[in-house]
Amino acid sequence: MFEGDDALKKIAVLSGGEKSRVLLGKLIATPINLLLLDEPTNHLDIESNDALLAAIDNFDGAVVMVTHNEMFLHALADRLVVFDNDDIIVYEGGYQRFLEKVGWKDEVMQRPAGGLRVWNGGEAKEKPTPKELRRLRSEVITERSKALRPLEMRMAEIEKVVEENDARLKELNKQVVEASQARQGSRVVELSKTMHQAKKMIDGFLEELEKLTSEYEGRKAEFDARLRALDAEDTPGVT
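Given the sequence above, the corresponding structure tokens read:
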């Protein structure tokens, strides 16, 4: 973004913003294993968030990310640059440790002494703070991703194999017809055996897929119920 004579300016005469652009340009031009991500989860649905989280987690290089997504902070961050009101804190450690040791100023200041208490018809119990609810929700979402992702990948793998074998069966059936028309009895027998094996293989994969689908739906319903329970905790009620 330096056009014309601006590209010939000395670094010393550049403004703060221009110096930042020079540093960013140097980073981009340097062959390093680095990702710069600015709010990458904006406008993503839950499944896309899970896929992005897994991709970043598997990335071998360094990641610098600007985000308000606490799920990503809990799962990925090991060093934080925290902007809290007018302060900037560089914190060496994960997000959960930051919440336990430092926390956010506004939430600490706004929490009433002794915390909120909820009457449940019996004994009173402590109501989780918004910060605690966000942490719990983030943990459930991360756990859900780790539990469901392998099932999703295996299901997609099986569906692909079944599709390939279906196409193979159609081709084999075509070859059987051609061999029958040519009165090639031994060829028909050979192709029929191959078709039988392919059908048996497909049946086995479909059986596995049915079991995986049932397990996936059960686990997903379990996590959805846990998230709904947390959402209910966050709903204003009698305190």
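Residues 16-118 form a domain with the Rossmann fold fold (CATH 3.40.50.300). Try to locate this feature in the token string yourself.
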